[in-house]
Amino acid sequence: MESYDEAIEWLYAQLPMFQRVGAPAYKPGLDTARKLDAAFSHPHRRYRTIHVAGTNGKGSTAHTIAAVLQSAGYRTGLYTSPHLVDFRERIRVDGAMIPRDAVVDFIDRYRAMDAGCSPSFFELTMTMAFDWFAASSVDVAVIETGLGGRLDSTNIISPDLCVITNISFDHTAFLGDTLPAIASEKAGIIKSGIPVVIGEAEGEVRGVFERKADETGSPIVFAEDRMPVAVCRRSDNCWIYEGTPFGCVRGELSGDCQPRNAATVMTALEQLQKLGYRIDDEHVRDGFAGVCGLTGLAGRWMRLSDDPIVVCDTGHNAGGWEYISRQLAAMDCRKHLVIGFVSDKDVSHILGMMPKDAKYYFTQASIARAMPADELAEAAACHGLQGEIVPDVEAAYKKALGECAEGGMVFVGGSTFVVADLLASIDRV
Predict the structure, then answer these.
(1) Looking at the predicted structure, is the pLDDT value of residue 19 above 80?
(2) Taking the model in full, what pTM does it have?
């Protein structure tokens, strides 16, 4: 490859990305991941790892754990998906994205070898991440699952700790159509003797995790039982957590879901301390307070403007919208919502949560999976949501911004890819 752009074009053309095309790119199972791993000499065995799964909150959780580890002086790898604007967001070391020439070098090495397999986009990019972390001599890498857990390609690692944030309905065609079935797939990351932290789990879901941990002989801790945060309160678009094992902690992430994520992270950090990680109170406070700057996290109730208020959020399923809808309801102003979804998602329940007193701009992201804006508008009308169709995210955002009166609010979301298109358009300005 002569250039980074050529390498990325080849990557997209040869290996369809699930986030863009959906089911045709989904490839469950670990055989290919193991063959690729062997072809590159098992790079993930050269550093410690932490494995993070869950329906919602796993991105915030993974980034916050990484931020704390960075603050503690560990050279830290972070692998997440999907990216918003730049492919390289998926692979970071101490917050810095993988260099363009490293991407080109990896693709060249892969194309020159006979790995004995035909990987998916996710399998190859995961291997790229593991290889880059080894080349960068990281001490530890935080690895986020792509989809599910049991059959997710990241499940080839042997981590120090597994973290499962919560269980909600998402990707039901692949993971099952009941919460216990989905939980069983997520529980697949629990491995023999390796401790696991569960963020939220009730009833049958809790039982799934308990049985799996018992089968594998894995110490299991439920953050809900531990109650690591005594009091949480809002202050200046952030959360203040009081009565924690690490003293008073200021959380930079301001979404309504973040107190639960914070409890999960703090419980995980306690377990890492027990495993010998050198993490003190100051490291925790610094990591929570500076997670976005330390790790490049974006798109979580992300405030882009104060006048008017502009917020974007990547929440895209019913579990995520339970929090987003409450946060929108708490905003005492005229709201303008730029909304788009992917076509393979049942959006009826989500639409039922959205405010009926808002003006809507029904749009679609620039990917093949995007739900057509007119189809979304028709579905939204059944829930009493009114607005107009603007099938381009940038145009929809500009129109909403232009119609938003002083003291109003613009919200952009519904899909990671709607937020990605928004941020890309802002970057071009």
Answers:
(1) no
(2) 0.91
